[in-house]
Structure formats: C-alpha cells, structure tokens
C-alpha cells in the first residue's frame, strides 16, 4: 500500500526536482528528461508515495482506462487497430491510452509505468521483453496483440504462417514461378517472423530450396521502394516479390513501375493485410486479408472481462482466420477464391 504520509512536496525534495515535475511523472503527461523521471520514480518507489489520482482509482477499484502499446503509429494498420479497440472500450465507458515506444531502450519501464494508470493493457507482440511482459501481467490484465507471449499471458493473433504458405504456394504451384524474394524483417516482429516461416514452408512442400534470407526492410511504403532498388538491379530481378505487408508491396510496385517494368508480366508482387489501397492501385494487389479491427476488439474484450472479474478464465491464445485475396498483381483475374487460408 502507498504511504499516505509522504507528500508530493517531499518527493520533489527527495528527487531534487520541482513539484510540477513529480506531477508530470506520476500522471504520465508532459515532457520530462529520462534522468529526472528516473529520480522521481526511485523516490516514489522507495517511500511508497501514492499520487492522489491513483488513490482515487484504487478506492473505486478501477481507473476507467485501457492501455494500448505500439512500437509506432505509422500507416493504416495501427489506425485500424485503434478503431477496433475503441469499438469495445468506448461502450464500456473506458478511455484508451496509447503509448508508442518506438522500440526505445526504456520501453519496458514506460509500459510498466503505464500499468499504474490503466485497468489492463494490450501490447503489440515484440514491443517489450518477455520478463517485462510477465511483470506487467502480474500487475494488470494483459493481452499480446498480433503476436504470442508466454503461456501465462493471453494473446490474439492471426494464422500468419498458413496464410503466407497458401499465398506462396499459389505462386510456386499455380503460376510455376521459382525465383521468389521475401521482403520484410522478421527480427523483433512475431507477425513477419511467422510469415517468413510460412513462405519457406511453401518451398519445402514443393520440394524446392527456399531463399536463405529475406530482404530486410521496415514496414512502410518508402521501405518497399528501397527494396525495389536493391532487388531490381543489373537485370537480376526475381520473378516475384512476396511482401510482409501491403505498404511494402505498394512501395515495391512504385519502384518497379518507375523502372519501366510491367506488373505482373515482368514482375509479380504480393502483399499482406488487404489495406484499402491494395484494391485501388493498378494493378490491384494480390494479398491476404486479415481482420485487423477484430484482432483489437477481441483483445479489448478480454481485458475488460478480466478487469471486471478477478476470477476470469485462464489466459488463452486466440488465432483468427485470414482470407486469401487474388487480384491482378499475380497475373490472375481479379476474382478472389472462396474460403480462408486452407491447405
């Protein structure tokens, strides 16, 4: 329990900062240097100080807020996640606090501090370390979103590997292509790691040797343009570029068209997500549709249930299905097949 006899002024004196700085740290608002933030948090921890807003929340038993932890906010993917999360949080009269770590070295500390102000947190897979995730789950209900965590932590993800295997098999078997390049960086991203594994599995199923390494780039459209520059040089272009998401694929498409290549005649390009732009570019993009809003909505439901019931069911891992969407960028007529990611 917090020490009600310790005041904010005493914490400020002990940390050698102003009262305003203590307030900003305890409320998670405003700009505070990392050194000042560390001193304030150490003083709070050592002396058991409990800010007033936290005391009121503890008395009520709830904060009325949920947390979302992202590595960043670039692109339509995160917008869809936020909308899906809010679709459950808002009717439950819970505000949504968003923390973007940008994969900083102090990401773990930032998220653990956020837990003091919310009733539960959804964390994008790979954003914080597993030890921090376990510490977080011991404090508030936690769901790993778009990834997997330890068995003791709930998760909501999609069938990334089977979906990518299905798409890659379509290129290898249905189109007879052999020289495929995978674009995306599996390091630190559970989603991309699973898609890379699914890509390689399709090669093995066809008794073919997969590429040893992916083309490692980030997940935004300019990174796809950069990948195209690396792939489409000296007449050594692959037959197809299999991208970890649609933003990369659209960037590769821009880079290919800029070099005078025809898609799909000279180069096949595929994506993943089925972002709105995937159907609007020319040629339209063959991709995998994943239920992005449903992912986040399910995570919010799990957190709300756990926050409202201390005896809620044990953590579970939910895997949502995807749908293979065939369009013109692979050389097929724009008529998506029925069914999901089936073998």
Automatic annotation (TrEMBL):
SUPFAM superfamilies: lambda repressor-like DNA-binding domains, Periplasmic binding protein-like I
Family matches, as CDD domains: HTH_LacI (cd01392), PBP1_LacI_sugar_binding-like (cd06267)
Pfam family, one: LacI
Signal peptide: none
HTH lacI-type domain sequence ranges: 6-60
SMART domains: HTH_LACI
InterPro entries referenced in this protein's UniProt entry, alphabetically: HTH_LacI, LacI/GalR-like_sensor, Lambda_DNA-bd_dom_sf, Peripla_BP_I
UniProt entry tagged with the keyword Transcription regulation: yes
Keywords on record: DNA-binding, Transcription, Transcription regulation
The keyword Transcription belongs to this UniProt entry's keyword annotation: yes
GO molecular function terms listed in the Swiss-Prot or TrEMBL record: DNA binding
Official protein name in the record: LacI family DNA-binding transcriptional regulator
Organism of origin: Micromonospora halotolerans
